[in-house]
Each structure stands twice: as structure tokens, then as C-alpha cells.
Design brief:
Layout lengths: L1 E6 L9 E5 L8 E11 L1 H8 L9 E2 L3 E9 L11 E5 L8 E5 L4 E2 L6 H21 L7 E5 L4 H12 L3 E6 L2 H9 L4 E4 L4 H8 L5 E6 L6 H5 L2 E9 L12 H6 L4 E3 L3 H4 L3 H16 L7 E6 L3 H9 L6 E5 L1
Parallel strand pairs: 9-10, 9-12, 10-11, 12-13, 13-14, 15-16
Antiparallel strand pairs: 1-2, 1-4, 3-5, 3-7, 3-16, 5-6, 6-8
Helix pairs in contact: 2-3, 2-9
Bound molecules: NADPH dihydro-nicotinamide-adenine-dinucleotide phosphate.
Amino acid sequence: MTKAIRIHQNGGPEVMQWEDVPTPEPGTGEALIKHEAVGLNYIDVYFRSGLYKAPHMPLTIGMEGAGTVVAVGPGVVNVKPGDRVAYAGPIGGYSTQRTIAADRLVALPDAITFTTGAAMMLQGMTAQYLLRRTHRVQPGETILVHAAAGGVGLIMCQWAKHLGAAVIGVVSTAEKAELAKANGAAHVVIGHENLPAEVKRITGGAMVPVSYDSVGKDTFNASIDSLAPLGLMASYGSASGPVPPVDIAMLGAKGSLFLTRPSLATYTAKRSDLETTAAELMDVVSKGIVKIQVNQTFPLAEAAKAHIALESRKTTGSTVLIP
Ligand code: NDP
């Protein structure tokens, strides 16, 4: 038997149930893995609440984990029983064991713990593609990062600093401002009410070439108004709710702006992209350039408590669920 957190309907944290499910058999191209640690991500809230449509019900939510390969199905060549592995997607992570397409797994080096592996795959590969591909950050740039003390945020602050950029981190409290600064943010703004004016002051009127906005509805306009001409709005999350439809004429009027709504799934859909993205992440983590900060852990069975903490903005850095 396997234990899993499943939902039978969308709703608040209370819809998550800790249930017995039969241990699945790995099919062709699949591996069965035993989770040692499971990552908590904001996307788990979207699948639970219904903002993202559940592919089926009941549904084991969760997009990230690290553990050991127990068995493999026919045709699997990249992993074998006993291997230490980690992944970000597909859904099914909140479980003690799961099957997964083996080509979604990457090897977890011995030097990286299961807890770090489970914390870093989704948030860290997101930071990689945002900083290296969505907009390729250049030394000397000043860039805007929302939720700078969060999971993706703390990784972006450290990595962007390493790339030679100055991060303007946006956070909600003085404590989070200190944390973002300690992790490399050059400037911090508390709240987004006067954000464009603050960005103007900090950049001496130049504004920023890229706004990385994971907050969504509440901050979209402030992020757009913080951009320099030809700037890029990377709207990559909706922690405050989805962004309403956008009038594209506004992008012209505000300086021939670019707008993208990127997702990790697209950036790692090809195995070669997954390998490159994961390898770059493993490299900066192994060298200590990016320190993955697991600031909260919860038993997997108590995932509801973790969701309550995440949604009420009580967490900082990454959160891991322990099976
Ligand atoms: P975080 O740890 O960043 O937690 C979310 C943070 O958002 C909060 O701590 C809070 O920081 C901020 N926030 C602002 N407004 C609200 C609100 N109304 N309710 C709750 N939180 C709010 O989460 P993750 O690191 O897991 O994810 C960060 C974001 O990145 C999410 O939006 C997620 O969906 C997105 N994401 C997107 C990916 C993609 O490929 N597109 C992949 C991975 C993540 P504060 O209190 O400082 O404002």
C-alpha cells in the first residue's frame, strides 16, 4: 500500500485527505519511486482550489519530489533501482510512492540531500529559465523580482546577484525585506502601492528591463509601470489571483513592451532542455552560489497545514513535506 494526499473535489485546505491507495506498477517507460521528501509549491494551491483544472478526480496533487527508484518498467534505460532521483512534474507528488515517466527524472548527486532536492527542482529550475532564457539577465542590469523572500524569490535573488544584476525585491514585511537582502537583493520595496515611483527613484529614472511577477492580479499594473521602454513583463504566477484580460494597445502606449506568461512545463518539455536546466541548477547549488533555504517542513500527512501557511504568506524560502 501507498499513502497519498488526495482531493476528491476542489476547495480549501480541508479537501486534502490522507488516504491508502494501491501501490502502482511501473508501466512501459515508467519508474516507481519511493519519496524521501516532497516539495510544496504554489501550483499545488492552484490545483487544490480549482484555479488550475484537475486532470481527474480523485487527484494526488503535488509536482515535485526526491527519492529512490524502487522498480522500473520495460524500456527504461536512464535510471535503475536504487538510484537517487528528483523531479518537477508531472502531478502526483503528495505520496509515499508513485510511478512517473522515467524521462522526467534527473539524477540527484550524493552531495545534495533529498530534502534540498525536493525543495529546489521546481522553484530552482523556474529561476533558471526566468533568469537565463525568458530574459537573459546581463551584468549591470537592475531587475524587479516580486515575492523576493519566497521559494522562487530567494533563489532568484541569489542567482541574479551571481549573474551581476541588482535585484529590486518586492516583499510584504520588514522581516521578509531583511531576508531578501541577506540573500542578495540590492534593494527592497515593502508593498507595491508606490512601486513604479520607488523603481524610478532606485534606477535614477531608467526603470527596469524586466519585471518578474509571480503575484498576478494585485501587482500586474505596478510591474508594467516599472518597465523601461521595450521592457519585458514576465507574468509567471498568480498568488493574489489571475490577471484579468489585457488590452494589448496598452503595451504600445507604455513603451513597446513585451509580455509573456511563461511556464516551467514548456521550458523543460524536451528532455534536452530538462537536462540543461537541471544541470545548471545542480551546478550553482553544488558550488554554494545558490543556497536552497528550507525554512519550513511538515509531515506529508499534514499538508493542509503547509497550504494554510503558504497561502497566508507565513512561509519564507522553500517548504518540504516529509512522507
Ligand atoms: P512563494 O514562496 O513565493 O509564496 C508566495 C508569495 O507570494 C507569498 O509568500 C507572498 O510574499 C506573495 N504574495 C503576494 N500576494 C499574495 C497573496 N494575495 N496571497 C498569497 N501570497 C501572496 O511561492 P512559490 O515560490 O512556490 O511560488 C512563487 C510564485 O511563482 C507562485 O505564484 C507560483 O505560482 C509561481 N511559479 C510559477 C512557475 C512557472 O513556471 N510559471 C513555476 C514555479 C512557481 P509576500 O508576503 O512577500 O508578498
